Records
---
Amino acid sequence: MPELIPSLSEVDDFLSKKKEIDSRMKWKNKGKAFLEWSSILIDEDGISIPTARIILTANQDEALYRFSFVLYYRGINIRRLDIDDYHRRTNPVSCPEYPGQRIIGNHLHKWNPENGAECVIPVDMPAKSKTYEEWFYYYLGLVNLVYNDVYNTPPLIKTAPRLF
């Protein structure tokens, strides 16, 4: 259940501050062919931020090349980067950016008080233009996060070619 909903200025303030991921990257099976890794965050002084968490999800099927990076603050998804060249969605007409527009492919969800995390902006790079690790560090740059431990690529599997 979400905690007290933050204002947009509180979210912007939180995003502007340097934060660090506070655990070693260890992927776990999440069911339905997905892997997940999550961590709490710490501030510049090394103090845990109990209301903040990052969750990474990857589809194990290497051919699909589909994954997401999510930053939660006070129980709310404030920034989510979805990497999936074929995903289609339509923004609500009340979104501040790209109102009512259909977005195809990679996109960034930007939380706002009126629409929650329903508003997205396109990320104009093909999914396979970056490795998973490059997307990870790209996302960290978007949300002002640092990861100082060993990076581990999710253990993806090769599947048989699809016949249809």
Note: The first strand starts at residue 19 and ends at 21.
---
Amino acid sequence: KFGAVVGDITILDNRSNFVEFTQPYAESGLTMVVRVKQEDRTWLFVLPFNTNLWIVVIFAFVYTMFVVWFLEHRSNPEFRGPWKNQLGTAMWFTFTTLFLSHREGLRSNFTRIVMFVWLFAVFVLTSSYTASLTSMLTVQRLEPKFTNIETLRRSNKKVGCDGDSFVKKYIEEVLRFHPNNIISVKSEYDYPEFFNNGTIEAAFLELPYERVFLNRNGRAGYIDSGVKHRFGGLGFAFPKGSPMARDFSRAFLKLSEDGTLNELEEYWFPSYSCSNPSSNPQCSNLDNDDRLSLKYFWTLFLVTGLTSTIMLVLYIVDLYKKFRRIPPLETTSGMDDSFWNGMKRLGMYYNEGRLDQSRKGPFSSPEGGNGEMFISSDEGYMIDDTPRLRQSTPSTDIQMHRTYSNTQTRVLRLAYTFPSRNSHVHGLSL
């Protein structure tokens, strides 16, 4: 007969019928330890951004590429030529901005403003991506192979426990595991061997023993699954009615209130569980919330998109104003000022830098052929499309304004020097 049982005695209801327990001096519970899930790192480089953010980044890239091409196409020779070359140049220019290695020169001030905002956005995105990817590569991110008991039970996985304690009965009656799937492990030192040879897929340990096991074997690929079933705690046992149980209970309460018990617990049972990353900086759970999402950058994309759109609109307005300064050509069928023809002429003016309507402004040449003379008020040149005149007559620069006055006189004098005087110069009968 003993007067007291001192040690890590788990307080249970059926045991309290025979002995007097003190107040618990430590927490107790049943936990599940499993192997670490093997992480597939093949696509790790895409994990810093979530799916929505990647979609927005790609859309912003394509939109910026289109805006840069549209703003530079008319004035920059590097953005002209066959459409395949134009597409390749625009894509290459926008892509190289991600690494700040673009070499193509910019001609338009509108493009410079767009690129200023875009380069700032690229700097923020690349810095955030690099920091997040570096964290993923340097910090050990662990996930349990199994996270709930139901999965183990339904798949008939074998689990291990201490066969000499109440734990085996608890797993069978409360957790409803089949007895054939419960493996008794005699010593805590045998668990790694049982895991390695595939005998068990999980181990059920009481909380203090789990902390000891993880501190000894945590770096070998074991982790707390987060499953916990609480018990009454750990206490001392005395015979029924013993006054010593009351005295020890008061002593435990005093040690708990002044923080002594917590200090002793952290000293002897330091927590290694990766389910609590703050207690162990060497491991961290990889959660979708850790990935960068659109909520962190939506303002940046909004500013970038608005800037590109505003510059695009201002450029189109400026282009249209220059186009309106050119008087419409008089044709054989009169003034063709329909909407669609106006759009065609505007597109031709944007793409070619001049109005080329040689099929609509004929005049008689000495050879009896048809030709046409064009004067661009924006570009400052004249084109004679008659085959012979193209070879024999040098190109002459003429600045044409909407208000003719003296300029009209100079144009008429120059036009009279050509072999044919029956000509049309932007609607002027000569």
Note: The mean pLDDT is 75.
---
Amino acid sequence: MNQPYTYKAIVTRVVDGDTVIADIDLGMDLWRKNVRLRLAGINAPEAETPQGEAAARGLREMFEQGRDQVLISTQKDRSDKYGRLLATIFLFGGTSVNQRMVELGHAVKM
């Protein structure tokens, strides 16, 4: 089993209820910019639906509260069929964004 990697990141945009774009701090002043992250283990409604719009709005609000800075946990080279890096995202207070989206009814566990 792959060990998870944890990085600081800044969420720059919410794409939909389970996808964000972030700049990832790799350490030693090295950054990977504009990385598409898929929230691992959850699925939100499609963006074109009213439920999908509500999910994206809920996700945006979470990051605004955390001032966009987060911690992400990934598995090495683990991505989905669209090339998005699969990640668990944590606000700096320790809240799992992935779990919170499920608790708020904006997503379901996969």
Note: The CA atoms of residues 97 and 103 lie 10 Å apart.
